[in-house]
């Protein structure tokens, strides 16, 4: 009670002494720092946990541990979900987009910590996932709950969600620009000074936090050893096309496997099937263990021995076709391992797996070209980096995020031209074959996706229940014109729904249609059924706003009835729809 009293006093003090704009900036810094600290805990815990589990083991038994560890991690994560947080909600970017579109940007409080703990367990035991989506989910939850506790409005809560996500990405990669771009490309639908400045503050705060406290050997950094040369442009174009096709494969396989696991009702069966499949994959291909950034770093310096270590191909690094088979297998198997880990019950994301897949693709492209000596040798490091950006941008449908992420990770813009070229071509290729990305496909299928198309975004925010008018006077099906006149005398509307005793809609009577006879007493015995007409269309209570507008456009009507399983609910007027549309448009776009 005392805590609530002090909190109310603080809120009153804040309203009196800090204007809202200044407070938003202060809060964005706090959200960024909190997200940065969360990312710091996550990365350190997973890194040290991996060292603890693998330190001092006999390499001849390592693969057996690789078989067991991921299953143990997924099993512990399932127990954590079932008995600790008691919630099986997804911890990914899709869930954040759903919160924005359907939950007024409110994210459950437990996601501030459950995403992190679950991913620590999953990734710490070698689950083939990325840590970025859980930390983005946790950062967004921090921003959402902070904003809600300070009683901010929907738009401000959404911005704080984006601040938490951008602060998390900036912290985990030390890439503040890419973090802002991600928030604008994926989470927010409008760019304005209102959202941009808080995003800048949160991203910088998150990046500084981990830069101060995170061990250098945990940071993800790559160096460019060879400059970009103009003659390589045709090869970067080809890599962009291949990256686009790989992104489509990645997306479709992930969604297919995820749907298959959702069809397995019993959790123990999910764990058994997923654990065994994942264990077999990692047993034979240990490079799939964990996030895979250590494998990418090894590729960047040409250390194939580390990538091939403990695999079936361990002694084949000098045989060119064995290298092609192994690296090619990594391109196709990483998404399978990732989707199995998540589908079986683990908590993780597809950021790192898509970067891993792109790195393998870029290296494979150069390796084959250089082996057959088609021309002057290409730089493996450059094409590996560009492949990372191209596949990431293609999988997320966020090309700018891929471009700036790799540019910042390499601490320079030496490769900005090939990054832009290849990632753009990858994105164009993907969009021509796969309309929705991994993070938007399920929401788009349900009609719950918020897009950068402001018309569609506004319609997603509008709720039919908010625009239904229920003040129209109804009349019974057995009534006469005399009964209707009495109803008209008490009504301020010119439409009168005709209902059965059970409340089912039979038709409507329009005032204009009875105006000339309503004072003719000789007509008072006329049954209401002779006066009513059928509405040109009806609106189901479950219809989306896009469907509602299409019905208005098709019929040319100004008012349409709303029914639920045949029963009358009320009417929707075109004028009220336009008024609600304008109000929502102002709310999401005003600076």
Q: What order do the helices and strands come in, and which of them pair?
A:
Elements lengths: L1 H16 L2 H35 L7 H24 L7 H10 L8 H14 L7 H18 L4 H20 L2 H12 L5 H21 L19 H30 L4 H18 L8 H8 L3 H5 L11 H25 L6 H22 L7 H17 L2 H11 L6 H18 L7 H6 L7 H8 L2 H4 L7 E2 L4 H9 L5 E5 L5 E6 H4 L24 E2 L4 H11 L3 E6 L2 E7 H16 L2
Parallel strand pairs: 1-2, 4-5
Antiparallel strand pairs: 2-3, 5-6
Helix pairs in contact: 2-5, 2-6, 2-7, 2-9, 3-5, 3-11, 5-6, 6-7, 7-8, 7-9, 8-9, 8-17, 10-14, 10-15, 10-16, 10-18, 11-14, 12-15, 14-15, 15-16, 16-17, 16-18, 17-18, 20-25
Class from secondary-structure proportions: mainly alpha
Strand order of the largest sheet: 1-2-3
What is the share of helical residues? 55-70%
What is the mean pLDDT?
86
- What are the segments in which pLDDT stays under 50 over at least 5 consecutive residues? none
Query: What's the alpha carbon Rg, rounded to whole Å?
Result: 29 Å
Strand content: under 5%
Largest sheet, if any?
Answer: 3 strands, mixed
Transmembrane segments: 21-41, 61-80, 112-137, 157-184, 196-214, 234-257, 269-289, 319-337, 349-369, 381-406
Pfam families: CBS, Voltage_CLC
Keywords: CBS domain, Chloride, Chloride channel, Ion channel, Ion transport, Membrane, Transmembrane, Transmembrane helix, Transport
Organism: Paralabilibaculum antarcticum
Question: Can you describe this structure?
Answer:
Residues 468-525, 532-588 form the CBS domain. It is found in: Membrane. The chain crosses the membrane at residues 21-41, 61-80, 112-137, 157-184, 196-214, 234-257, 269-289, 319-337, 349-369, 381-406. The protein has 591 residues and is mainly alpha-helical. The chain has 25 helices and six strands. It has helices at residues 2-17, 20-54, 62-85, 93-102, 111-124, 132-149, 154-173, 176-187, 193-213, 233-262, 267-284, 293-300, 304-308, 320-344, 351-372, 380-396, 399-409, 416-433, 441-446, 454-461, 464-467, 481-489, 511-514, 545-555, 574-589; strands spanning 475-476, 495-499, 505-510, 539-540, 559-564, 567-573. It has a three-stranded mixed beta sheet with strand order 1-2-3. It has a three-stranded mixed beta sheet with strand order 4-5-6. β5 (559-564) and β6 (567-573) form a beta hairpin. It is elongated, with a radius of gyration of 29 Å. The mean pLDDT is 86.
